[in-house]
Amino acid sequence: MEAKASLNTEERGESVERAAPDWLRGQVVKYRGRRTPGGMPARLTLPAATVTMIVGWGDPLHLYDAGEKGSTGGTGAWHAMVGGLRTSPVLGGYRGAGQAVEVDFTPLGAYMCLGISMHNLANETVHPDELVGKRWTQRLTERLAAAPDWEARWEVVDDALARLLADGPEPSPVVAEAWSRLSARHGGMTLGELAGATGRGERRLQVLFREQIGLPLQSVARILRFQHALTLPYGSHASLAELAAACGYYDQAHLNRDFKALAGLTPAQLCGLANQTALDGTAAVEGGRTSVFNR
After folding, report:
1. Do residues 132 and 82 touch, judged by C-beta distance below 8 A?
2. What is the pLDDT of residues 14-58, one digit of tens each?
3. Residue-wise over 177-204: b if at least 16 C-beta within 10 A, else e?
4. What is the Cα–Cα distance from 241 to 15, expressed in whole angstroms?
5. CA distances to 93, 153, 197, 255, 260 from 225, in Å
6. What is the pLDDT of residues 186-214, one digit of tens each?
7. pTM of the full structure
8. Nearest to residue 80, comparing CAs of 141, 1, 16?
């Protein structure tokens, strides 16, 4: 089955997405290509259960500290970067014209491709060369910039990831099962429930999650639940209390606390930013793997 691409072209630039090819499903969520003329407002990217690699040419990506807490570096200008799982949002944009290819990995896919302990990437931004070798990014960027179109660039990315996977580690079957179960339930399982389902002790699961996912299991569950709330049509619920119940929060206050902690914004403020995006086409806020409060 061929992976399909979606295209959004505006005066402000171009954004192209392609789902991961079949042989990369489970390791990669999608590829994204961007062309920006510069001068666009910065985008707020919310915490998601993905690890993002960006390789660009032209003007660098400028990152700013948008979190109230939990942000530990990564600000500045980046032509290429890898960002691990985060518990706070990231604000970033291009001041001048540039192009970039982004890869959204699953945490286990990033572990397999990058071959490092994922806790070293948690709430951090690093240059890819620090993970996969000197001049790796330069060689990849040269091939991407020389490619005639996005389809040719996807083939370059396919080849680069295949090489990384061939040399990377295999994840633990235990953590792979735990991750699958936790993701399927949108974070709605406790550490004790996962330990019982996988037949492993709670301490062992915590060690494996730190090593191969990057964050404690409870933090990952919180992000998955938050992301699930962003995907549900807010308009289909009569109140935030009903939305909270549908997503596994104890009550509306619990939902509000988690949104404020992870996004630095209340649900109403996030919805306002999403409406701004719908009205003027400016990508004011992105939800990682999801749209923010789909309508």
Report:
1. no
2. 899 999 999 998 999 999 999 988 777 788 889 999 999 999 999
3. bbbeebbebbbebebeebbeebebeeee
4. 35
5. 27, 33, 20, 10, 14
6. 999 999 999 999 999 999 999 999 999 99
7. 0.87
8. 141
